[in-house]
Amino acid sequence: MSVKIVNVEKELPEYSRNTQEILPLVENWLDGQEERFRRKVLKIFEGAGVDKRYSIMSPEDVFTATSFEEKNNIYVREVKRLGKNVLEKALHNSGWAGDSLDFIITVSCTGIMIPSLDAYLINELELKRDITRLPVTEMGCAAGISGIIYANNFLKANPGKRAAVVAVESPTATFQLEDFSMANMVSAAIFGDGAACVLLSSEENVSGPKILGEEMYHFYNSTHLMGFDLINNGLQMILDPAVPETISEHFPAIIHPFLEKHNTSIEKVDHLVFHPGGRKIVQTVSDLFGNLGKNIDDTREVLRLYGNMSSATVLYVLERFLKKEIPEGEQGIMLSFGPGFSAQRILLEW
Length: 350
Known about the structure:
Protein name: Type III polyketide synthase
Number of helices: 11
Domain Chalcone/stilbene synthase N-terminal: 40-202
Distance between the termini: 15 Å
CATH architecture of the largest domain: 3-Layer(aba) Sandwich
CATH topology of the largest domain: Peroxisomal Thiolase, Chain A, domain 1
Oligomer: single chain
Strand order of the largest sheet: 1-7-6-4-5
Organism: Gramella jeungdoensis
Helix content: 25-40%
Number of domains: 2
CATH superfamily of the largest domain: Thiolase/Chalcone synthase
Pfam families: Chal_sti_synt_C (PF02797), Chal_sti_synt_N (PF00195)
Strand content: 15-25%
Family: Belongs to the thiolase-like superfamily. Chalcone/stilbene synthases family.
């Protein structure tokens, strides 16, 4: 029995802007700040490797002072809509009925809602009354892969079952107008909003890449590197500039023992399905693999087209690979990083 990824679908919010269209809004926002600082921030936006981003609010509203309550209300409304749409799309395109799901995992870290999204999806789509549900929060960018890891473990223990992982994120709902720190500038420059859904199955005779192995890797003494502080105005980004360097230092320990455990090596892995955390992280990973003849072009392209959508982003990269004609037997590795600090890994075989 093996667990396979059957389908991946994505869903985007209604608002979008090219980076060049956002720059005047950034300039207005920075009015009154020191001129050198303003030029530096504009260069950060221009050099972020993001050509376009989507948001649950109009860009004009993003740069308008609103309360935590107002922004979170928009988050709740739009997360419900995007989550329902992307799950419906995935089920429809796979020929699955909603009540055929046995396990549902919802992933988000950019707002707060209780009940969690999965409860609303069960009602909206009339999923099974006895479906097992798991909301995953507070794991940031790593949680898309975390959700697949949890689904894989459920399905390995329950042959003949089906699972859905639904990731919906809105980093724009966390944007802080009064925060002029570099962490806020960099996050504003790279992040966008989006949703994705992954369907998995432990049934026989289903097609899709199978999961050969999965594992988490936790960095010690690193909880300060990434996350959110909860302040009166909402969720305030924590993003330490040491993240790329820290990833680079740990990279051999993250990749090689994991692959060896599953009787393979990076030389035998054909496809790199990596989370585009930002331009510097993408470049760090690209440099580490360049001498092996590997590339992360799909990762870089997802960042360019959508920005970093936190947990959903690596699923956008995975969706691109599922649309390719990949020969049987070829392997791929999924990788994302998130608060903790941690790395999440999955080994796939087509």
